[in-house]
Amino acid sequence: MPQDSYIYLLLYVDDMPIACKYLTEINKVKTRISGEFEMKDLDPAKRTLGMVIIRDQKVGRSCLSQKSYNDKVLEKFAMHNPKVVSTNIKRGVHVLSVLL
Q1: What pTM value is reported for the model?
Q2: What whole-number distance in Å separates Cα of residue 33 and Cα of residue 51?
Q3: In the list 3, 7, 14, 59, which could disulfide-bond 20, CB 3.0-4.6 Å?
Q4: Residue 99 half-sphere exposure toward CB, CA atoms < 13 A
Q5: What is the reported pLDDT for 95?
Q6: How far apart are CA 94 and CA 100, in angstroms?
Q7: What number of H helices and E strands is found in the chain?
């Protein structure tokens, strides 16, 4: 396996998405697992655990979006039209941007 590569394997009940920078490495993992367990190789996932998977193959990036879940929570608590408030952030603090 190339040194700049990680394999992400998630297991939830009977779903097991696998992610890696290199398709050859994903295929190696699938071959080893299918030798031990009965499995189906499905199309690339579009959703997992209620999150939408967004892929941008041009830049080689995948993102997870919980927008539909967030919308449901906001609606449940009658916050679907919240007020937007500016907040000062101390210089040097890094903010994680979330794709909604």
Answers
A1: 0.60
A2: 25
A3: 7
A4: 10
A5: 61
A6: 19
A7: 2, 5
